[in-house]
Design brief:
globular; AB_hydrolase_1; alpha/beta; four-stranded antiparallel β-sheet; AB hydrolase-1 domain-containing protein; 246 residues; AB_hydrolase_fold; Rossmann fold
Length: 246
């Protein structure tokens, strides 16, 4: 099936996207940050025979889509992709699919669009391996999870223990963890600081975490803007100390 490259003008700028198929349902693929939409190459043979059109945008700042402007944040990504979906969906039934940052967009887009009566579904893939996409799509194509939102992970996610190891993560993830949603200002930890409270922080979907980490009582789970879920123990005490150290 031929994949075409197209563009559409939003109020933010021009968005380029890949499109394949002519079905009566639209499958949107949102790539991760610094990724690209070419993952649809492995999806076409599964979804198009099931009656889907596939649309995969280059997110702002990626490919030939418009560059990111100063202070362009997650909310801007969300609002522009909402506009993009409305411009390209043709009032058809839609499925929103994304990994990593694109998964965060998909979940939040679904919440916004459902309030307008648009039928949407979100299968969120936390793995970043392109080889995992066809397996996920095979499950999606069975029409088993089209009612409401669904989140799942196809592989065991890494266990992160204690905050001392977390500076390896991107700062925006740390900001999200501290605030529970988002914290705007940047911060840095003094390298010599040792936190007294130990918190186990595990990335993964809820069912997988509860099944594999039964010995921990998690009192908090956080859905980051990037689309990943983290589960934490001793959340209040741990982050109170963390805030005081910043």
């Amino acid at each position: 099936m031929e994949i075409e490259e197209k563009s559409v003008e939003t109020s933010y700028g021009k968005i380029w996207y890949l499109e394949a198929g002519t079905g009566s349902k639209v499958f949107y693929f949102f790539h991760g940050f610094w990724g690209d939409p070419r993952g649809i190459n492995g999806l076409s043979s599964i979804l198009i025979p099931k009656g889907y059109k596939i649309i995969a945008p280059y997110l702002p700042g990626h490919g030939k889509s418009h560059s990111l402007q100063f202070k362009f944040d997650f909310q801007d990504f969300l609002l522009e992709m909402e506009e993009f979906v409305k411009l390209t969906s043709g009032n058809l039934r839609i499925v929103l699919f994304g990994n990593s940052f694109g998964g965060g967009l998909a979940i939040n887009l679904a919440r916004r669009l459902k309030t307008e009566g648009i039928i949407v579904s979100v299968p969120l893939l936390q793995s970043i391996k392109l080889d995992d996409y066809p397996r996920a799509i095979w499950e999606i194509s069975k029409d088993r999870i089209f009612d409401g939102l669904a989140a799942f992970s196809l592989k065991k996610d890494k266990r992160l223990t204690y905050f001392a190891e977390l500076p390896k993560m991107k700062k925006r993830w740390l900001r999200d963890l501290i605030s529970g949603v988002r914290l705007i200002k940047d911060f840095s930890l003094d390298k010599g600081y040792k936190l007294q409270t130990k918190s186990v922080i595990i990335r993964g979907n809820k069912d997988w975490v509860s099944r594999n980490y039964k010995k921990y009582n998690f009192d908090k789970h956080v859905a980051l803007s990037g689309g990943h879920y983290y589960f934490l123990r001793q959340y209040d005490k741990f982050f109170k100390e963390l805030r005081e150290s910043i």
